[in-house]
Amino acid sequence: MQDVLASLFQHAAKTAGVTVRVAVNFMPDQSRTEAKRWFWVYHIRIENGRDDVIQLRTRHWRITDAHGMVSLVDGEGVVGETPVLAPGATHDYVSGCELMTNIGSMEGHYSFAGEDGASFDVAIPFFPLAAPAAV
User: Fold this and answer.
1) What per-residue string of b and e applies to 73-110 under the rule 16 or more CB within 10 Å gives b?
2) Under 8 Å CB-to-CB from 21, ≥6 apart: which residues?
3) Rounded to 5 degrees, what are φ and ψ at 77?
4) Nearest 5 degrees, angle CA 93-CA 97-CA 100?
5) Which helix (H) or strand (E) holds 8?
6) What's the CA angle centered on 111, arms 19 and 4, to 5 degrees?
7) Which of 30, 42, 58, 104 has its CA 20 to 30 A from that of 129?
8) What mean pLDDT comes out for the span 47-54?
9) Half-sphere CA count of 15, side-chain side, radius 13 A
10) For 130, what's the count of Cα atoms within 13 Å in the CB-facing half-sphere?
């Protein structure tokens, strides 16, 4: 079952024993293309493959649109949470991104703290944001 769920995610990166998987979907019903607003949702799964308990502290996103405009987003936790993951545990969340172009990309990293209090960064894989041509 775990392999079937993992296959739904299109992009993955593993750093320091932590895997981040991303599935992204364009949302035509939430987009307003006539107003140059395109919207995507992305589902993130964080998998703790380490031998220690870790806690997600902060996030850093680099969002780029088709014109090369870059937005940096930094903040505490993810969707209002700073999840604690035991060895072998996963954490899933869903969020969204709106762009003023029909193509773009996202990438970044999370900062975690281990049981010893030491912090480390985990890569969020690069993933494209692309609306279908017919939209």
Assistant:
1) eeeeebeeeebebeeeeeeebeeebebebbebbbbbbb
2) 6, 9, 11, 12, 44, 45, 47, 125
3) 60, -160
4) 175
5) none
6) 20
7) 58
8) 98
9) 17
10) 4
pLDDT at 86: 98
- Domain 2-130 sits in CATH at 2.60.40.1470
Backbone angles phi, psi at 29, to 5 degrees: -70, -25
**Full 3-state SS string of 54-84:** EEEEEEEEEEEECCCCEEEEEEECECCECCE
Which 8-state DSSP code applies to residue 116?
Answer: T
Closest Cα to residue 62, out of 112, 93, 107?
107
Residue 115: predicted pLDDT: 92
Strands 70-76 and 38-48: unpaired
Listed by start position, the domains of the chain span 2-130
Give me the pLDDT at residue 135, please.
54
The neighbour count for residue 118, using CB atoms within 10 Å, is: 8
Q: Residue 5 — φ and ψ, nearest 5°?
A: -65, -40
